[in-house]
């Protein structure tokens, strides 16, 4: 399991059901992600990046195709088993941070541990360690609205890390942040990937964000049009899309 | 795990305190009303039962005067038609245990500086047996006191308290209508009668004394009513029939003519009163339960709103690993906490209210452990029942839909 791919998908299709009929968004996507990879996904707005990430994160189901996550056939998992995968294997980081506004930073970070049945003392200890790791150790009792956007994203990353997942999925994690803060967040991702060997897949519109990754997936109209090293990508594939 | 979920539910409730408190209020009022109504209903029931127990068993009262077809007694003020010899004749009937003829009246009692106006019943020693009335102290007057119409008296507890206070009344002489009477005994406390009169506010004297020396009678030997105790409840219909036959014969009432007396089955009346009290008690409880139901619906309403409001939060929780049942448990716990806290406050309010009704309104109340337990179980059930639907609705959300919810 540790040696096999973290993600393996074949002929993945997704269509949304709308009032105007089914809208196909992803067409026969194939991809394999090995442990320790650092991948950036780029593509024009509406090309299906978020749709793809949500399926990878087990937040949404594909219409057809095969998805193997950490050696498990995702389509065969029950609702509870999918929740377990989201809890243990994946750490999801959102563009809008998605912290609970009424909970302290410490409680926000500790939240995934509640659903893995960890005792309170242990939960708080690990949440504290994670906040230290993202450089926010002194803000344990603060609320999300008392810190900056960059700091909130660090808290969200700490929350994604607290259950020691193999895979971090981040959908435009720097989309709401200024350039300087974005670089700091990317440095944090780089460190997690290099030092801790965590596999990272992130979506971005900026080529200098994508430059932190090793591999690039370029999506266009729901199809992968480039899959290779960032440094070998043609300028068109790295083109900023915003 | 439950502890952590309790914490999460608690935090969610704290987010909108006013709303949580208002929701609780529905529960508080519902439970308070149930407790209070049950207390009043059961209090009334208990009082009726105590009165019945104090009445004496298998009891008839034969009254002077007839009843109309409508049931109202005629000639209440007219001359009594019953006599002591009627009573003696009834006593000879089969299945009759004891008979006591009585002549009641009202008079002023005086002892030292105190005086007290009360009901005085002239009767025979049998009266105590028929009414199941014991003596608290002293002894009763005897048949020979009745024969010679001596001036002796038995006092009820209220009379003793009013005239003597702490003093021992035995052997003392009181004055009734300016004549001296020796207190032979004190009657045991009986409490209220079914119609709410204080039965202890009574003096018993020999029937002959009452007739000749206290009130006088237009016709010698007549009495206002006769108490009759039957041997068993099964024998009561037969006894009633034979009393009717006997008195019609003795009073020479022609076939077809109305009775000049009335036989009342007090035991049957008491049973009716007990049933009425029970029905009242049930109805009060039922009415109060409706407010509990309304409180429950209020909880469901608020939980539905708060689940919708927190759809995004539920999506976040699901994205980081909450299972459907974790979400279900959190929402359900919230509903249960609201209803149980509301119930606790409601019990306090209900018990306090019952106490106030008793102290201020003077109504009999009875708060039982079982009525509190019932309210508690019902409240918890209401919480689970009405929390279930919103909780289940939340738990069935798909993570992506919940996250996208605006
Ligand atoms: N819930 C939905 N129902 C119907 N259509 C949807 C839904 N979500 C997305 N779409 C459509 O699917 C397509 C892909 O959307 P998606 O959000 O995956 O794009 P994206 O690449 O993430 O874009 P962006 O860069 O703007 O975030 C779009 O055309 C969008 O309109
Ligand atoms: Mg997107």
Topology:
The complex is a heterodimer of chains A (242) and B (406).
Chain A (H helix, E strand, L loop, with lengths): L6 E12 L2 E13 L4 E5 L6 H8 L7 E6 L2 E2 L5 H10 L1 E4 L11 H10 L5 H14 L15 H13 L5 E5 L7 H18 L2 E5 L3 H4 L4 E6 L2 E7 L13
Parallel strand pairs in A: 3-8, 3-9, 6-7, 7-8
Antiparallel strand pairs in A: 1-2, 1-4, 4-5, 9-10
Chain B lengths: L1 H13 L2 H39 L3 E6 L17 E2 H8 L4 E16 L2 E10 L2 H5 L4 E4 L4 H6 L3 E4 L1 H8 L8 E4 L2 E9 L14 E5 H8 L7 E2 L1 E6 L5 H15 L10 E5 H44 L1 H9 L4 H38 L7 H27 L3 H6 L2
Parallel strand pairs in B: 4-9, 6-8
Antiparallel strand pairs in B: 1-11, 1-12, 2-10, 3-4, 3-7, 3-11, 5-8, 6-9, 7-8
The structure holds adenosine-5'-triphosphate (ATP) and magnesium ion.
Structural notes for this entry:
The complex is a heterodimer of chains A (242) and B (406). With 242 residues, chain A is α/β, with parallel strands linked by helices. In chain A, 32% of the residues lie in helices and 27% in strands. In chain A, helix 3 packs across helix 4 and helix 4 packs across helix 5. Chain A is globular. Chain B has two domains: 184 residues, no CATH class; 180 residues, no CATH class. At the A-B interface, helix 2 and helix 3 of A face helix 1, helix 10, helix 11 and helix 13 of B. The structure holds adenosine-5'-triphosphate and magnesium ion (MG).
Keywords:
heterodimer; A: 242 residues; alpha/beta; Rossmann fold; 6-stranded mixed sheet; 4-stranded antiparallel sheet; 32% helix; globular; B: 406 residues; alpha+beta; 6-stranded mixed beta barrel; two-stranded antiparallel sheet; 12 strands; elongated; binds adenosine-5'-triphosphate; binds magnesium ion
